[in-house]
Amino acid sequence: MVMTDLDSGVPHAARMWNYWMGGTDNFQVDRVTGDAVAQVYPEIALMARHSRQFLIRVVRHLAHEAGVRQFLDIGTGLPTMQNTHEVAPEARVVYVDNDPMVLAQGRDLAGSAATYVDADYHDPERILAAAASTLDFGRPIAVMFMGVLGYEPDLAVVRSIVDRIVSATVPGSHLVLWDGTNTTPAVVEGAKRLAEMGGVPYVLRSPDELASCFEGLELVEPGLTQITHWRPGTDSPEHIDAYGAVGRRG
Ligand SMILES: C[S@@+](CC[C@H](N)C(=O)[O-])C[C@H]1O[C@@H](n2cnc3c(N)ncnc32)[C@H](O)[C@@H]1O
Predict the structure, then answer these.
(1) Which residues have a Cβ under 8 Å from the Cβ of 83 and sit 6 or more positions away?
(2) Could you tell me if the CB of 26 is within 6 A of ligand 1?
(3) In a mutational test of the pocket of ligand 1, which residue from 20, 37, 97, 161 has the highest number of ligand atoms less than 8 Å from its CB?
(4) What does pTM read for this prediction?
(5) How many Å apart are CA 250 and CA 244, to the nearest integer?
């Protein structure tokens, strides 16, 4: 990847996440900031890696057990490992991000296996219009917001964005969402350190606030849980400050 033009000296959300996930598409400023956050909240890398395991388990469940063949993954991030189109290769996948680097690198790696849309999630109409070229809104779609909604500080705005997109889908569609939660003092310190270091501030929410995004949907078992407890593998840690769920539109 050619990154010279993009190294602005400012820590960058997608690249820091890539660093914590164990990827190599990041600059020194991202690693320095990432390490500063990890000093006060060492579990951040664990959260990043477990979030991908959560994505894999959820997408497999939806593709293989729930029969979902279409995914709208909003706030995709840099392609790191086992991205949605690789976990569900038979599905139609639309990725949405507002970061040019994510779009450029994602398109290169995904080729024709997935469509990339350049849009901000604050503009759901744009997302819906662009996604309609690839996805059939007459059939079920899994709408994914994976660790991205904390960039919007106002929960009411978050809920209206989620509602707008989900309400454009048909019954049998799903909402998948996880986010960092304000469940320990250490994670709250980590978020403060991120903002102090010049990173894009991230709002941690309570599990109840995240649950409110699923209003009107049927929660798939086991409901809203720590992401490591959602149909877990064997290596799940006891506690993680990140909750997620899958909700079905009835
Ligand atoms: C934490 S990272 C990626 C998380 C990724 N979904 C995952 O599961 O690994 C957050 C991503 O959200 C994107 N993002 C942030 N604000 C956004 C917005 N308003 N609209 C669309 N994408 C956004 C960033 O560009 C970045 O790629």
Answers:
(1) 76, 109, 110, 114
(2) no
(3) 97
(4) 0.95
(5) 19
What's the pLDDT tens digit per position in 75-130? 999 888 899 999 999 999 999 999 988 988 888 887 888 999 999 999 999 999 99
CB of 59 sitting under 6 A from ligand 1: no
Q: Which of the two residues, 186 and 1, has the higher pLDDT score?
A: 186
Instruction: Quote the crossing angle between the two packed helices 28-40 and 44-60, to the nearest 10°.
Output: 100
What is the b/e burial string over 211-229, where b = at least 16 CB atoms within 10 angstroms of the residue's CB? bebbeebeebeeebbbbbb
Classify each residue of 178-193 as buried b or exposed e, where b means 16 or more C-beta atoms within 10 Å of its C-beta. Answer: bbbbebeeebbebbeb
How many angstroms separate the alpha carbon of residue 147 from the centre of ligand 1? 7
pLDDT tens for residues 21-68? 999 989 999 999 999 999 999 999 999 999 999 999 999 999 999 999
Q: Which of 161, 134, 169 is nearest to 145 (CA)?
A: 161
Q: How far apart are the first and last CA of the chain?
A: 43
Residue 76 CB less than 6 A away from ligand 1: yes
